[in-house]
Every structure is written in C-alpha cells, then in structure tokens.
Amino acid sequence: MEPPKRSRTATRARLLAGALEVFAERGFAGASVEDICDQAGFTRGAFYSNFGSKDELVLALFQATTDRLLEQIEALLPDLATQPGTLLDAVLGLLDEAIGDQRQWHLISTEFTLHALRNPEAARALNEQRAMFRASLTRLVEEISAASDVTFSVPPELFVRLIIALHEGARSQSLLEPTKVPAGSLEHAFLPIVLDAVSQPSH
Amino acid sequence: MEPPKRSRTATRARLLAGALEVFAERGFAGASVEDICDQAGFTRGAFYSNFGSKDELVLALFQATTDRLLEQIEALLPDLATQPGTLLDAVLGLLDEAIGDQRQWHLISTEFTLHALRNPEAARALNEQRAMFRASLTRLVEEISAASDVTFSVPPELFVRLIIALHEGARSQSLLEPTKVPAGSLEHAFLPIVLDAVSQPSH
C-alpha cells in the first residue's frame, strides 16, 4: 500500500502549490477549482478526492505553512535555551524563511481572512486553525521563558497575539513599500523593546 | 454658484456612502460602478463627473476617513498638551470613533490594499495617500512630545508606523474574535509600554 499513499501525498502537495500560485494571481474569489486543477495538472476528480472545497484547500495550506514554521522553531529550541536573548531574532528570521514568498502568502492569507469575515463557517475553521497555531507558539514562549528563568508581566498568549498582529500589519507596509520598510524591520525595532519591558527575572 | 457646489458635494458624499456599503458586501473586485450608482441612486454619468474610476473613489473614501480622524485628533491637541499621558488613549479612542463601522472599513481598506499589491498604479496612489496620513500623524506626535518635554529614542515616523501596523493587524484579530480580542485591546495593552520605553525627558 505504500506507493498509493506516496502518490496521494504528492497529489495533495502539487494541488497546494498550484493553488498558491493561482490564488496569488487571481485572488481567492477569482480562482476556480478548474483553474487550480489546470495549474497543478490534475482533474477535478483528483481535487475532490483530496479536498472537500476551495476553503478546505486554503485551510490545508495554512496548516502546512504553520506546521513548517513550528517545526523549524522547535528545531532551534535546544540552542535558544542556552541563548534566550536570540529568541526573537530566531523567530523573526524563521517567519521570513519558512514562508518562501511573502507577497504570495500575504495575498492568499489576507484574502481568506476577508472571506471569513463574510462567511461564518470559514471564520470558525480559520479561528480554529489560528488558535492551534497560537497555542503552539505560546507553549514555545513558555518553554523558553522557563528555560531562561524569566517571567512575563503579561500573559504569554497576549504576547503571541501581539507578535502576530504586528507581523501581519507590518507585512502589509513592507509589501507596499519594500525599500522604506524592509521585511521584519518594524518587528525587529519594537518587539525586543516590548519583550524587555514585560520580562522579569523569576527569582 | 453656491447651490450647484453644495449639490455636487452632496452627490459625492452619497456616492462615497453607497460605495462603502457595496464594497463591504461584494468586495472591491465584485462591485461594479453600476452597483454603486444603484445603491446611491445616481446615474453612471453622475459617477464619472465626480470620480475617474472605482480606484479614485476608494482613494477619496480613504482621504475622507483620514481627514476626519486627523481633524478630531487636532481638536484634542489643546487638552493633550496639558495632559500628555492621555495621548494614546485619546488617539486610540478616536480610531474607533472616527471610523463608524470597523468591519466595513476593514473590508474595503484591506481589499484595496490587496488590489494595490497587484496593480502598481493603485499602489502608487495608495502609498501617496498613506504617506500624507503618516506625515500628519507624525507632526501631531512631534507637537505633543514638544509640549510635554519628552523626546523619543526612535524616530516619531517609525513610532507612527508601529501604531498603524499594530492597529491594522489587531483589527483583523478583533473582527475574527470580537469577544476574545475586544477592539483596541492589543493597542491599549502594548502601545503605552512601547511609548514609555522610548520616551526620555528632554532636559
């Protein structure tokens, strides 16, 4: 049974990659399942045996992206425990690395968020996905603060929400004005200030 | 010549209000000039004698919204000079007040930003409009810091970019999860921390 499974994984991966291209260029609303199949070189049958809908495919894209990001952050944990000061730089660096094409990712993730604001079912699914990502990131922040004997004067979950809000807002400015606001520059300028202000030695 | 001018202003205002409704419900790409005219009760002729294109109308909406916001902030200036500590609360309060329907405004402004990321001419016009808004806000921050004898360890323009990035990113979370992230809560939790950390007495 191995070959069919490998092939199914490969089909999903090619559909996800094709969808990312198509969505980025035509927008979430403007891209049809046919467009995605054409781009990836599959039939509609192949699409629907992998995803129930366009929404489900986007959520799978989000999941794949956040899984990759969390995996890379976790790989850094052993180093971070001995060098806690580098936490933010490492996380911010990964945000850029794990997401290859920031413009493409911004277009599709922002567009799906707008879709969710008009569609309660999509909002529910997106919120669930985002909550899982925040929970993983919060656990990492807690592990690192424990390893470095630091406590926060704000709930770690709120600090994670700040990182996400600032990153998403800053990315919009960076994409509109790449030379004036290099990717990550607002995060690098302000997150260390906040982290320092809310950190206290545990003992 | 007064009545025609008043009437022209009223026509523009009704077209702007109609467009806000139509864009919020159908999206920027999905809304046609006809839809906007139907909503506002005007002909296409009336539309094109006021706006060269849909893009131009959205930029006029941005201008009207930011003008209203800056006007309200400026009205507060005399009080702020004597009570500098209330600056952020006042500005954050106005962001909510000046923009009546946050959801509607988020949908249209985010959608036009995505449009600009695919269209260099729209990007140029949007960047110009955003630069003017940032310049006005930066001047206000500088006036207030001078009046309260405080200097910043970061350029005021960068602090303004932070406020905008955090506000835009936080608004997305607030609209997706209104009860978990009340409007303005991330800004209120973190901007005073940053302001305090970057402020130094002038003498």
TrEMBL record, chains A, B:
The keyword Repressor applies. One of its GO terms (molecular function) is transcription cis-regulatory region binding. The keyword Membrane does not apply. Residues 32-51 bind DNA. Keywords: DNA-binding, Repressor, Transcription, Transcription regulation. InterPro entries: BetI_C, Homeodomain-like_sf, HTH-type_TetR-like_transc_reg, HTH_TetR, Tet_transcr_reg_TetR-rel_C_sf. Gene3D superfamilies: Tetracycline Repressor, domain 2 (1.10.357.10). This is TetR/AcrR family transcriptional regulator. The lineage of its organism: Bacteria, Bacillati, Actinomycetota, Actinomycetes, Propionibacteriales.
